Amino acid sequence: MLLSCGVAHADEAATTTAPAASLVAEQELGAQLGFAAGGRVSPGGLLVSGDYLYKLAERDWFDASVGFSFGGNAPACFRDRQDNRLCDHGIADGFGMYVSGGVRRFLAVNKKFVPYVRAGLALRLSSFSSDAVTGLVVPLFIGGGVRARVTDGVSVVGHALVELGGGTFNKGVGLEPHFSFAVLGGVEFALTSN
Predict the structure, then answer these.
(1) N or C, which end of the chain has less CB nearby within 10 Å?
(2) Which residues of 156-187 are buried (b: 16+ CB within 10 A; e: fewer)?
(3) Alpha carbons 121 and 31: distance in angstroms, whole number
(4) Phi, psi (5° rounding) for residue 16?
(5) How confident is the model over 126-163, as pLDDT tens digits?
(6) How far is Cα 129 from Cα 93, in angstroms, rounded to an integer?
(7) Least confident of 66-70, 111-115, 130-134
(8) Taking all residues of the chain, what is their mean pLDDT, rounded to a whole number?
(9) Three-state DSSP class for residue 87
(10) Cβ neighbours of residue 7 under 8 Å, at least 6 residues apart?
């Protein structure tokens, strides 16, 4: 009697802290839609992205992304009294395109929800066509989120991330810092079975 109670207790603990591998396939594709907030020379606006996940270890997946942000196009660059060219775009201005790679670590899970953290490096093209300013930016990103399984092989996700880095811009703008914040939601599909 005591032995069977101990076994039931161990099984119950396993379901509340199951490994992520039980709810995340070895390879997955995802699509997300959201909003990015930028400013100065960091583009913002509507954000569309796609992810590819590849399992590296029990709780870690390689996380590759491609994304585009579409914002307003009002001119916001000017020359200061020292004749330096400065840009002061709003949080939802400009166009951005990026590719990124990093690691997504899934944390302890229950039967449906899998929280995660992610971090990595991106390469970003930032453009403000009304000012003819374009730049190449290399930011680090860090974020977190949660996914919920809807059916076998399909999960919905929601996450937020912060990017911080720097880049070089044309038209006399030169080196500039980059900072942006994004919130996204979407869906991920298993390409392989668990």
Answers:
(1) N
(2) ebebebebebebebeeebeebebbbbbbbebe
(3) 19
(4) -85, -20
(5) 999 999 999 999 999 999 999 998 998 999 999 999 99
(6) 10
(7) 111-115
(8) 89
(9) strand
(10) none
Give one word for 69, left, alpha or beta, with left for phi > 0 and alpha for psi -120 to 50.
beta
Angle (CA) 61-66-69 rounded to 5° is 135
Give the tens place of pLDDT for each residue, 39-51. 999 999 999 999 9
Total number of residues shown for the chain: 194
Query: From 3.30.70.100, 2.40.160.20, 3.40.640.10, 3.40.120.10, which CATH number describes the 2-190 domain?
Result: 2.40.160.20
| HSE (side-chain half, CA atoms, 13 Å) at 118 | 29
Ramachandran assignment for 154, one of left (phi > 0), alpha (psi -120 to 50 degrees), beta (any other): beta
The strand pairing partners of 114, in sequence order, are: 147
- Give the residue extent of every domain in the chain: 2-190
**Tokens in use for 127?**
């453009």
Strand 60-70 to strand 45-55: parallel, antiparallel, or no bridges (unpaired)? antiparallel
Which single residue is written with the structure tokens 């939802």?
92
CB 121, CB 165: distance < 8 Å: no
> Which residues, 6+ apart, have CB-to-CB distance to 97 below 8 Å?
67, 68, 69, 124, 125
**Residue the block writes with tokens 């009002």:** 74
